[in-house]
Amino acid sequence: MAEQILFTVFGILAVGSAICVITFKNPIHSALALVLTFFSLAGLFVSLGAYFVAAVQVIVYAGAIMVLFLFVIMLLNLGRLQTPRQISKAKVFAVILGIVLAAEAIYIGLKVYEGTAVSPAQRGSEVGAVITSEQLNQIAAIESAYRLDRSEINSDYVPQITSQKSNVDTLSADEADRLIKKLQGEMGNPDRIGTILFTKFLLPFEVTSLILLAALIGVIVLVKRETPNSAA
């Protein structure tokens, strides 16, 4: 119950601060609201058991990235927003994007209300029932996503759940729930994340580095642009 309350509080803070980012006219105020958004997301990650991602969210984004944002804002000496006539096209794009995001939020909310957005491991199972096909599929998905082997799960993780069994297929539904939660928590370790990041997600990681490089070049071009007085 406490986890659900914290998740709701951090979710409301994240959404509220994100709205403030795009509604504040002062760029510095928007940047500070973005810091609150990052901390709220870190709280959501903690409530989900992703402690490493939460720490990275605070150290990298709320720390280093926001320092760069503030540096660029002050370096370019950005003032308030431009006149409404100059940003009319941006408003149209913002309205369309807002409608899409609102539809997505409504869809997710309906799924949560129906109970289909909750993973099988979180719904609870009947005590004594055998492991279900949904639980086996979820364990298989974890094996595929995190490059695990079934023999590794049987030898390393199953004994931590029960000392009477040594095979996933022989677990009860309640034991399978505990195993899935155990696997989801263990997969947040830095060594496992590093292995996945530089194997399965190597291409997105490199694409992200190129995007950051392009952004860095764009900042340099903006700073080095010639003013009419200097050109004369």
Overall structural domain count: 3
* Count of DSSP-assigned helices: 11
The total strand number stands at 0
Helix content: over 70%
- Radius of gyration computed on alpha carbons: 23 Å
CATH superfamily of the largest domain: NADH-ubiquinone/plastoquinone oxidoreductase chain 6, subunit NuoJ
Shape: elongated
Task: Could you tell me the CATH topology label of the largest domain.
Answer: Four Helix Bundle (Hemerythrin (Met), subunit A)
Model description:
- The structure is a single chain.
- With 232 residues, the chain is mostly helical.
- It folds into three domains: 81 residues, Four Helix Bundle (Hemerythrin (Met), subunit A) (Up-down Bundle), CATH 1.20.120.1200; 37 residues; 66 residues.
- It contains eleven helices and no strands.
- The longest helix has 27 residues.
- The chain is elongated, with a radius of gyration of 23 Å.
Sequence-ordered SSE layout with sheet pairings:
Elements: H1 2-23, H2 27-47, H3 51-75, H4 88-114, H5 120-123, H6 133-145, H7 150-161, H8 173-186, H9 190-197, H10 202-223, H11 228-231
Task: Give the tags.
232 residues; mainly alpha; Four Helix Bundle (Hemerythrin (Met), subunit A); 3 domains
Short description:
With 232 residues, the protein is mainly α. The protein has helices at residues 2-23, 27-47, 51-75, 88-114, 120-123, 133-145, 150-161, 173-186, 190-197, 202-223, 228-231.
